Amino acid sequence: MARILVTGGAGFLGAALCEKLLRRGDSVVCLDNFWTGRPDNLRRLATHPRFVFYERDVCRPFDIDVDEIFNLASPASPRHYQADPVNTLKTNVLGVLNMLELARRTGAKFLQASTSEVYGNPHIHPQAEHYCGNVSPVGIRACYDEGKRAAETAIYDYRRQYGLNVRVARIFNTYGPGMDVADGRVVANFIVQALRGGDITIYGDGRQTRSFCYRDDLLEGLMCLMDAPDDVTFPVNIGNPQEFTVRQLADLVLEATGSRSNMIHMPLPSDDPLQRCPDITLARTRLNWVPRIALREGLRRTIGYLEEQLKPAAAA
Ligand code: NAD
Ligand code: UDP
């Protein structure tokens, strides 16, 4: 049994990770400032004897004895991170520096929730970890993309300079139950729009691609990475290599919900990557990890969750 700190633990992925770690028998310390996370996500965990919550900003130093740190604190939806880009950059840069200092003081193993966004609008396809990316340092996504890139720099400098035991997961678009109705990312948007009978908002022509990973597959991947042998210190892509256009996703959501919503087109936001698909050779061969839940099945489960959330009693 380990004592594990999860930053961003009140968020979509963080709360499910806390739950999974508790189920495994670990003690969990959760840190979150509820920027995009919700107290409701922690309701089931709050009374657990091995769970403790600190309402804190990861940008401020935090001292506690732990064996492992999962650093997930950061808004992840473009809607959220673009609403306060300065805080996004601070969270990703100052937040990771604080958590690396904590790892240095305690000797804890450190895992960073990095992102496929480090590849930007990629020139190679699918994206393997050696690709250095194509990111605009000045665009509207830069606060997040460059923040995560700087975080990776800090992690490998701490490793070289202080010998920290580090892990970096480059997470590709992940969805599932637990996503907020107002999350703003494409899967949540399309499902909520379809369930409400509103227009499905396709940005651009809908031919841009993403590869969608189901939440539980992703969490399994993060835990495999944390538990991997100590030579697995390089970045590892965690995602589902099945690639879909945004238009195909809209079709699947309409089919799965039985909705008669119309599709409408809206302008494509600037710097929106045209294609994205992980090469997961490293995860497969070094972690023995592959995703298992296909998009249709994952959508079915996510629709069930969001349907419940939209019921008047859940909103009250
Ligand atoms: P989320 O927005 O649901 O969760 C992020 C959590 O971090 C929230 O609970 C939020 O309140 C908290 N947080 C943000 N800033 C903070 C701060 N300064 N101090 C303390 N807490 C703070 O997002 P998510 O989808 O659960 O993503 C979790 C992590 O995984 C993020 O680091 C994100 O960059 C990374 N990631 C997610 C995806 C994905 O598709 N879900 C893809 C790539 C990377
Ligand atoms: N998108 C869309 N309609 C929406 C939300 C997003 O067409 O209502 C598109 C968006 O432009 C992008 C893709 O869906 O091309 C994935 O967007 P998301 O915000 O989920 O994540 P990203 O991968 O862009 O960070």
From TrEMBL:
Localization, UniProt: Golgi apparatus membrane; Golgi apparatus, Golgi stack membrane
Pfam families listed in its UniProt record: Epimerase
Cofactor: NAD(+)
Annotated protein name in UniProt: NAD-dependent dehydratase
UniProt lineage: Bacteria, Pseudomonadati, Pseudomonadota, Alphaproteobacteria, Hyphomicrobiales
CDD domains per the UniProt record, alphabetical: UGD_SDR_e
Signal peptide: none
Membrane topology: Single-pass type II membrane protein
Single GO cellular component term: cytoplasm
Coiled coil ranges: none
Domain named NAD-dependent epimerase/dehydratase: residues: 4-239
Keywords associated with the record: Decarboxylase, Glycoprotein, Golgi apparatus, Lyase, Membrane, NAD, Signal-anchor, Transmembrane, Transmembrane helix
PANTHER family, per database record: UDP-GLUCURONIC ACID DECARBOXYLASE 1, UDP-GLUCURONIC ACID DECARBOXYLASE-RELATED
Annotated InterPro entries: Epimerase_deHydtase, NAD(P)-bd_dom_sf, UXS-like
Source organism (scientific name): Metarhizobium album
GO biological process assignments: D-xylose metabolic process; UDP-D-xylose biosynthetic process
SUPFAM superfamilies hit by this protein: NAD(P)-binding Rossmann-fold domains
Domain of life: Bacteria
